[in-house]
TrEMBL record:
Keyword set includes Isomerase: no
Domain MalK-like OB fold: 36-89
GO molecular function terms attached to this record: ABC-type maltose transporter activity; ATP binding; ATP hydrolysis activity
Organism: Bradyrhizobium brasilense
Stated family: Belongs to the ABC transporter superfamily.
Annotated keywords: ATP-binding, Cell inner membrane, Cell membrane, Membrane, Nucleotide-binding, Sugar transport, Transport
Pfam families given in the database record: OB_MalK
GO cellular component terms, semicolon-separated: ATP-binding cassette (ABC) transporter complex, substrate-binding subunit-containing; maltose transport complex
Name of the protein described by the UniProt record: Multiple sugar transport system ATP-binding protein/lactose/L-arabinose transport system ATP-binding protein
Superkingdom of the organism of origin: Bacteria
InterPro entries: ABC_transpr_MalK/UgpC-like, Mo/tungstate-bd_C_term_dom, NA-bd_OB-fold, OB_MalK-like, P-loop_NTPase
Secretion signal span: none
Length: 170
């Protein structure tokens, strides 16, 4: 893979960086959806608060999450998009994790990896399953993700700068 990647959208540079940096720290929703397979999940919500710990977002799917990004009080009450990579989900939430209830559509067993596909509210979600054996092709499953692994994108597509490196950053 290349040392640096230039991501273009409509002939304009969106971001330049290493594959690792673009994957973990996308500058925009476009870059976040471009890098990675399966692509990043995008969940719509509304900003409820901004404080020193980040931004509190109420997802349309119901969950409330405080994402550690630079707070911007001008965004309170406005729509925002939360991004979560399929690999960042787990099936056992820690105390401060975001929990999302997923209506399963199907489970894809690919040998060493299993992906679950479903809907959280009106949004389609793909997650890498940690424990694939008990999962069926229908029903509900609760997924969790650390807020430190989440991204926030404004309505113009630009990402809010994260306050902390994600737990899996190396």
């Amino acid at each position: 893979m290349a040392d640096k990647i230039v991501v273009l959208k409509d002939g304009v540079v969106e971001q330049v960086g290493s594959p690792h940096d673009l994957y973990h720290n996308p500058a925009s929703r476009f870059v976040a959806g471009f890098i990675g397979s399966p692509k990043m999940n995008f969940l719509v919500g509304k900003v409820e608060a901004a404080h020193e710990l980040g931004m509190e977002v109420r997802l349309d799917a119901g969950a409330l999450v405080c994402v550690p990004v630079e707070p911007d009080k001008s965004l309170i009450g406005k729509p925002i998009t939360l991004g979560i990579r399929p690999d960042d989900f787990s099936s056992s939430p820690a105390e401060k994790d975001i929990a999302i209830d997923l209506d399963l559509d199907f489970v894809e067993h690919l040998g060493s990896v299993t992906y679950v596909y479903g809907n959280a509210g009106k949004e389609a979600v793909v997650a890498k399953a940690a424990k694939p054996d008990p999962l069926k092709n229908s029903g509900k499953v609760r997924l969790a993700a650390s807020p430190a692994d989440c991204h926030l994108f404004m309505t113009n597509g630009k990402a809010l700068r994260r306050l902390h490196a994600p737990a899996n950053w190396s």
